[in-house]
Amino acid sequence: MEPVFGQIKQGRGFRQCLSRGMRKVQGEWALICTTHNVLKLWTALRHRCRHPGERLRVLGGSRKAERKSQL
């Protein structure tokens, strides 16, 4: 869990919240975490798939595309 905070602070440059109030800060933190997770997924898919159209099939849950990507 701790490496995630380091990646967000160092890699993304997030040092402090820009909004005030607990609800706004929670929303801002949720947005930062969502962005971090989406970028991790994008990187994983980019390295996993060989062909550009294959990414869409993997996201769609096609078993055939999954078998092809494992070969």
Descriptive notes:
This protein has 71 residues and is mostly helical. 76% of the residues lie in helices and 0% in strands.
Task: Fill in the keyword field for this structure.
71 residues, 4 helices, 0% strand, elongated
Brief characterization of the structure:
76% of the residues lie in helices and 0% in strands. The protein has helices at residues 2-11, 22-48, 52-60, 63-70. The chain is elongated and about 50 Å long.
What secondary-structure arrangement, pairings included, does this model have?
Layout: H1 2-11, H2 22-48, H3 52-60, H4 63-70
Please provide the ordered H/E string of secondary-structure elements. HHHH
Rounded mean pLDDT score: 76
Strand content is under 5%
What is the terminal separation in angstroms? 33 Å
**Rounded Rg:** 17 Å
Number of contiguous helices = 4
The percentage helix is: over 70%
What is the subunit organization of this protein?
single chain
The gross shape turns out to be: elongated
Q: Please summarize the sheet with the most strands.
A: none
- Please identify the structural class as seen in this structure: mainly alpha
Unreliable spans are: none
The strand count comes to 0
